[in-house]
Amino acid sequence: QDSRPDMLCAAFGLAAMAGLLVAIQQQRLRWFAFSGLCIGLAGLTHPYAVVFALQLAVVVLVSGQTLTAKLRQCAVAGLCAAAGTALWLPLIAMDADLFWSQFSRNVLSRSGPGLISRLAWPWDFVEFQCQLIGERLGTLQSCLLLAIFSAALLWALRFVWENLRLGWRRMPSKLIALDAAHESSPRLWIGLLLAGSAMYLHVASLGMHPAKGYLCYPWACVVCLLAVICDAGLRRCGSRERQFWCGGLVCVLVWVLCVPGSGLRATLTYATRNHETNYNRRAFCEQLSQRLPPGARLIVSPEYVFEFELLGYKPINASRIALYHDVQGLPYDYLIASTQAFDEDIPAALHGRLVWELGDPDDPLACYAAVYASSDQTLVNRKWPR
Prior knowledge:
Strand order of the largest sheet: 2-1-5-7-6
Number of strands: 7
Distance between the termini: 21 Å
Shape: globular
Mean pLDDT: 83
């Protein structure tokens, strides 16, 4: 499924947060406009952009400026965000009913109750999302995540305790002021607020939606927090030579922890074997199509459905999820099944007859498909929709 916009959406979100920090520091509206535009472009890729929009709104509200300045900054950012997302409008206007069907079922319905209620009370979804996060990160990186937040929270509690002892001062200006030389290390506050809010909003915005890819944004914020923690710690190591060696040791340790699941083996495999049909999706699908008659009615596993669309067929996505559509009962000529179709047991549901296979089923990085033809037992009670 090579059309997911997870990383692109997260990249726009990180750009929005970087522009926001510069905007708070320089108090120039053009940087608020830049952040808003990045949020709008993120919204163009996925509704997950609501996470960035809420972070921007909170930061502006606690930035210590006058109410008029806050309203002006929010208005500029909001208008630019709306302008970016509005690029969807021509496509929506072409088929508004289709848009609402997709948006309401795949985005709103899967997440659970309304966004406001999830923001106010996200605890019903914490266990579900923590399970997904654990599956995505694995044991080592989950431990690293907990260690980073634990270190940051311990620092925050120490800072609060010292301020209580010495006399409490106004916090908002300290939290947002970017004075790196200040002993209170406001960058640590910013890193903690950025990473903490990203993780909280990730859980609240997704709810019961089982999307793992968008974890790349809160994880990137957590890595920024780790960098700030390491910088603050290294400043206490004394000489520059000791800082250098301690910093190198930390980098090696973090690299070792992040290697599992980083995709190094997949990247190397596809970079060196892309000329082979089994590791080139487009070439693999072209080879499949050479043995299929033109105009055949195809039900295709999601891994390859877009390629067959580009090859001139009118395929149907192989799915038995009622939220999307159920292919059972459709007439078809061939079913092209791969991992996801097998996970949903579609060949058995459609009573397909195995004709031939292509690819390597034993290599998880290689392309593989099994081609089934319809049989006399195939149940047909609907019309072919394309």
